């Protein structure tokens, strides 16, 4: 677990010449899914779905670390995320679609 964000510690991490970098959490950042205008016009429901997607940084970092450190397949990591964090992805979906996703994970 990373310590809370600390601006002074962040400066030590971004200074390549600093001999004693301090640990700190990264700043929160917004993940955006970009699509072209033709895609948005052709698939408005998918574009609307993409606008709802938000990933908390901790589960995202754990998923990326699992893929990198353990060479876990992205599909397997995605399924684990869906099973472990329904409170996140259910906010992106309608109730009926969320129920179908949940049923498929069993």
TrEMBL record:
Name by which UniProt lists this protein: ABC transporter substrate-binding protein
GO molecular function: transmembrane transporter activity
One Pfam family matching this protein: OpuAC
Chain segments carrying region Disordered: 1-25
Gene Ontology CC terms: ATP-binding cassette (ABC) transporter complex
Domain ABC-type glycine betaine transport system substrate-binding: 9-84
InterPro entries linked to this entry: ABC_Gly_betaine_transp_sub-bd (IPR007210)
Species whose genome carries this gene: Pseudomonas proteolytica
């Amino acid at each position: 677990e990373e310590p809370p964000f600390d601006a002074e510690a962040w400066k030590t991490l971004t200074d390549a010449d600093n001999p004693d970098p301090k640990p700190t959490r990264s700043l929160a950042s917004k993940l955006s899914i970009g699509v072209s205008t033709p895609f948005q016009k052709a698939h408005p429901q998918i574009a609307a779905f993409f606008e709802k997607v938000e990933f908390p940084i901790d589960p995202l970092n754990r998923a990326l670390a699992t893929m990198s450190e353990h060479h876990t397949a992205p599909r397997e990591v995605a399924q684990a995320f869906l099973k472990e964090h329904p409170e996140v992805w259910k906010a992106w979906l309608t109730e009926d679609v969320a129920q179908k996703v949940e049923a498929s994970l069993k």
